[in-house]
Specification:
The protein has about 260 residues and is mainly alpha-helical. It contains eleven helices and three strands. The protein has a three-stranded antiparallel beta sheet. A hairpin with a 2-residue loop joins strand 2 and strand 3. It is elongated, with a radius of gyration of 22 Å. About 20% of the residues are buried. The model has no long low-confidence stretch (mean pLDDT about 80).
Length: about 260
């Protein structure tokens, strides 16, 4: 039956690809992405598999036509200051020494202006809690929660003046729960859907009770396979949130600029 299918749309092309992938359990993750009508451009190895099965030129025209331009993360002055601090913190063997970095930041704060101070504050928190000291042996046994907590220090500073909520601690994603419920109504108990429970997420950003993105962490010792599965899950969850956002009554011009921004 698969050989007789003639896809004419992007959705049909991805459905056909998922049908071809069913016999190969090694790429189950890709099958889940294709069933959720998602093309991941993040991982080049998985992208090659998609290109192998999806031959429709219109699909790739649509995928390559997507162009999301994000605003610069820092001003030019802030970026120059950041790079200069990193360079000054390196020892004679070009290894980053945290004591030297913290001393360099402290000296810069004395003479800095307001917009640079925020960058230095973040660098100070990062140097104290996040960045690994190249002169010491790294600890690869930190659990996932420890890895997340290091980033949370920075997020608290970046988002403290914004109307955003950080929902952490394996919170249930409402968008995924809604989709699981819909599929449960359609398929019943014929396929495993966690009984419409929804996916647990390390960190969800939300505003006014509306989910904006999902974000996931893994410990340093996580295998490549575990990271790939996690990455695909996070992509699918952000896709679910994006679908919910596009269902909102937005003006047409605004809906063209709606996207989610998640971390992995």
């Amino acid at each position: 039956m698969v050989e007789n299918l003639k896809p004419t749309t992007m959705a049909e092309e991805l459905n056909l690809m998922s049908a071809k992938l069913i016999p190969d359990l090694m790429i189950e993750t890709l099958m889940k992405l294709s069933l959720s009508k998602t093309v991941s451009l993040i991982n080049f190895s998985t992208l090659k598999v998609v290109q192998k099965y999806a031959k429709n030129e219109s699909l790739w025209e649509e995928v390559n036509g997507v162009n999301i331009e994000l605003a610069p993360a820092m001003s030019v002055t802030s970026e120059e200051t950041f790079n200069r601090m990193i360079q000054l913190s390196k020892d004679t063997k070009c290894r980053r020494a945290l004591k030297q970095l913290r001393l360099t930041i402290a000296k810069e704060k004395v003479k800095s202006i307001d917009d640079i101070t925020a960058v230095l504050d973040i660098m100070e928190i990062t140097a104290r809690n996040v960045i690994a000291d190249d002169t010491l042996k790294p600890n690869e046994n930190d659990p996932e929660l420890t890895c997340y907590r290091k980033v949370a220090f920075i997020l608290d500073i970046l988002l403290k003046d914004l109307s955003l909520n950080l929902l952490d601690g394996e919170t249930i994603c409402k968008a995924s729960k809604s989709i699981a419920k819909d599929y449960e109504d359609i398929y019943g108990n014929s396929i495993p859907l966690n009984r419409g429970f929804g996916r647990r997420i390390d960190l969800i950003l939300s505003a006014r009770n509306i989910e904006l993105s999902t974000n996931e962490w893994k410990r340093g010792k996580a295998t490549q396979e575990q990271c790939l599965i996690q990455q695909a899950k996070n992509i699918r969850m952000n896709k679910a949130i994006l679908s919910r956002l596009l269902d909102l009554p937005l003006p047409e011009n605004d809906s063209k600029n709606v996207y989610t921004l998640g971390m992995d």
